[in-house]
Amino acid sequence: MRRIRIALIAIVAAAAGTLFLPGQAMATPYPETMLPDSSLHTYCFTAGFSGSRDPGTGSYAMSILDSTTDMTISNAGACSDNATDIWWFALDLAGTVRGEWQCIVVSGSVCDSADVRIDFDQIDIGDNDIADRDKTSVHEIGHSVGLGHHSPASHDCAMISGEIPSLDIKWRRYDAHDVAHINATF
Predict the structure, then answer these.
(1) Cβ 111 vs Cβ 34: under 8 Å
(2) How far apart are CA 13 and CA 109, in angstroms?
(3) Lower Cβ count inside 10 Å, N or C end of the chain?
């Protein structure tokens, strides 16, 4: 009976074009969040972020997106209008939240402008604070280009949630799978 049930499930899944075998890796869907309005990603540092303990982490995250994908990054300078794609904030976030991304201006199905909020006090509770700040910033910018959370079993990259497990550079970068999705879209 068990063999018949497994065979029947396999036939139905194959007919639907979705046969999953034990141990087979499942692709991470893309986009998992809203996509930005274009491949140009402008950003600005609010006064609170510029005066924070590590404004360089925002520059680091933007440079990773610029250097590893087909996205184009531009510092918008002054935070003056909603044409800016990413507004960086250093804030005290609720509970144990280390960082967050939120689209603040939606146009149709794309995000025209978003906030990235970093809570340095929460990030600095653990080990490897500077590397963890960079990971969190890269992670939140990843959401702004359509990436969602990954488990370490899925991809060893910045899109895992929480503290980095080691100082390995892979935790402060995007996985090749994610880069391929971004580049195919932009």
Answers:
(1) yes
(2) 31
(3) N
3-class secondary-structure state, position 39: coil
**Phi and psi at residue 23, in whole multiples of 5°?**
85, -5
SS3 category, 44: strand
Residues of the chain with pLDDT under 50: 1-25
d(CA 122, CA 161): 13
Pick the closest to residue 145 from 104, 100, 178, 117 (CA basis): 178
CATH topology of domain 27-185: Collagenase (Catalytic Domain) (3.40.390)
Question: What pLDDT score was predicted for residue 29?
Answer: 81
142-155 per-position pLDDT tens digit:
999 999 998 777 78
Closest listed residue to residue 140, CA positions, set 65, 66, 79: 65
